[in-house]
Amino acid sequence: MADVLARLTDVSVHFPVHEGVLFPREVARVRAVDGVSLTIHKGEVLGLVGESGSGKSTTGRVLLRLQDVTSGTVAFGGQDITHARRRELQAIRRRMTVVFQDPEASCNPRMRVGDAVAEPLRVHARLTTGELQQKVLALLDQVGLDSSFALRWPHELSGGQRQRVGIARALATDPDLIVLDEPISALDVSIQAQVLNLLDDLRKKRGLSYLFIAHDLGAVAHLCDRVAVMYLGRVVEQGPVEDVIAAPRHPYTQALLRSVPLHDPLAARARGLQVLDGEIPSPLAPPTGCAFHPRCRDAQPSCREGRPELVALGARQTACPVWTGDAQLPIQS
Ligand SMILES: Nc1ncnc2c1ncn2[C@@H]1O[C@H](COP(=O)(O)OP(=O)(O)OP(=O)(O)O)[C@@H](O)[C@H]1O
Ligand SMILES: [Mg+2]
């Protein structure tokens, strides 16, 4: 399709686990990502949600080519970049950038804000000192920081301001796609909303695409067009955000939604604290059949057998052996 910007096809990432000091040998494999296919269209925001350890960051790193795949393919801008070499990657890194969760990590403590924002421009663009200065100030302005911030050190900033610097850096090379790996999780609730609004404005003004990785569905509802829900390295449900949130089909998506904190404390008290039972199992030894079945309140004996594939109904895809919609069609990869 012409408007596809990035695509992961049947991507798996398995990390070997070794034992032994002098002669380490592989004893197991962590299946961090296990057969994930995702598509991001031009100008689209795709949310990626799931509990801690479900493989979201690893998926994002695969797309950024910071992590090699065990199998599967990665395409960006119509080009297969699965095995792209350094030179090709340099061009790709200009068009696809990243903002991490921890604003501290995105700011070098020995670099003033202006230099931090100028850094990607120095690598990727040939600008005169005057042009560079203009561009840095324009970028700071776009993320809501005035020119005085250029001379500040990272320790002189609040968490929200530091994350704005991280966003300015990610915007510097005029990318088509930004991978946002939990960009608001470390921030105060009131600042979270400001940063989400900033990301939304920037996306509209610049026609950007995002892969927005988040723990909860609340932030996803605000920013995303589509959402993919991951559980133990696999996508269990994906579709337009309003459909998935209004009528989640997979019991895991339903449980995730019930665990979203309500912003109205009294309503939250009335509803009671609803958490997902049990912990996410180890990706070293995922449960047989549907990996969610040991925690699923709708589980049937048959859920222990066979691995459920995503099936499509309309724009939605769900991988639940119990859920049955009309006219289910197997996904063609
Ligand atoms: N380099 C690595 N070596 C071995 N295991 C790894 C490595 N990186 C990630 N993992 C494992 O892969 C699984 C998925 O990790 P990942 O960081 O992708 O999860 P996540 O969904 O981003 O979690 P969180 O929400 O906590 O950030 C985890 O079990 C993690 O321990
Ligand atoms: Mg992560």
Small molecules in complex: adenosine-5'-triphosphate, magnesium ion
CATH topology: Rossmann fold
The named CATH superfamily: P-loop containing nucleotide triphosphate hydrolases
User: How many independent structural domains?
Assistant: 1
What would you report as the Rg, rounded to the nearest angstrom? 21 Å
Q: What CATH first level would be assigned?
A: Alpha Beta
| Biggest sheet character | 9 strands, mixed
Q: Give, in order, the helices and strands.
A: EEEHEEHEHHHEHEHEEHHHEEE
Secondary-structure content class:
alpha/beta
CATH architecture: 3-Layer(aba) Sandwich
In which range does the helix fraction lie? Answer: 25-40%
Explain what the structure shows.
The protein has a 9-stranded mixed sheet with strand order 6-7-8-3-9-10-12-11-13, sandwiched between helices. A 4-stranded antiparallel sheet has the order 2-1-4-5. The protein has a single domain, classed as Rossmann fold. It is α/β, with parallel strands linked by helices. It binds adenosine-5'-triphosphate (ATP) and magnesium ion (MG). The site of magnesium ion has 3 residues, from α1.
Features:
333 residues, alpha/beta, Rossmann fold, 4-stranded antiparallel beta sheet, globular, disordered C terminus, binds adenosine-5'-triphosphate, binds magnesium ion
